[in-house]
Design brief:
2 copies of one chain form a homodimer. Chain A has helices at about 1-15, 20-25, 35-40, 45-55, 80-110, and strands spanning about 30-35, 60-65, 70-75. Chain A is of the alpha+beta class. In chain A, helix 3 packs across helix 4. The first copy, chain A, starts with a helix and ends with a helix. At the A-B interface, helix 1, helix 2 and helix 5 of A face helix 1, helix 2 and helix 5 of B.
């Protein structure tokens, strides 16, 4: 349970930045070097390296050093726990709306 | 587009904490005061107030002051954009696996 919570903490935090989401979208089209990733975002290699590290710690990205170049690709994290948490939340919202609807119906019944 | 990105930033950041996710799960069962929310988490009212503020800024919680008591309930944010972003990511992962599969099939074809 603690591990599950820590995974949600790390992945949701990793996804809370537009550059990091952009890196993931770019890597979906294929592996890239740190320099290739940095270019479209107009940020320094150091800045980009920090974002990649956050993504790596959340298992969303994996990196491999080939010679002097660090290659980045998508990691093993498939966001299934995150998908399920959001789904559970949305089900809860629907149930709450259903309960409000029922309450409204009952109130109407009492009025007539 | 900027607004969409800012919403994702705020909601994913709001969801990256176990206490904040716990508050949302608790509020799914009904409204609660700040003191009622603080108790099961064993944190101070000030600490809990800060978490509620982050959730409020992400439209996940709304608060209303009745007399001297602040009541919290779930807000209008239904996490649909977040659900869609994660779904898009998972589709991308599947497509990447399909491409790898095809590549493997082709390599096997060349070997035989």
């Amino acid at each position: 349970m603690v591990q599950y919570q820590e995974q949600l903490d790390r992945t949701f935090a990793a996804l809370s930045d537009p550059t990091r989401r952009g890196i993931l979208e770019r890597l979906g089209r294929g592996s890239a070097t740190i320099s290739e990733l940095a270019e479209p975002f107009g940020i320094s290699l150091t800045g980009l390296g920090k974002h990649v590290q956050v993504l790596e710690e959340a298992d969303l990205v994996r990196t491999e050093k080939v010679g002097r170049t660090r290659w980045c690709s998508l990691g093993p994290q498939d966001l299934d726990a995150e998908r399920r948490w959001i789904l559970g939340y949305r089900l809860m919202l629907e149930e709450r709306l259903d309960r409000l609807g029922e309450l409204l119906e009952r109130t109407k019944g009492q009025e007539s």
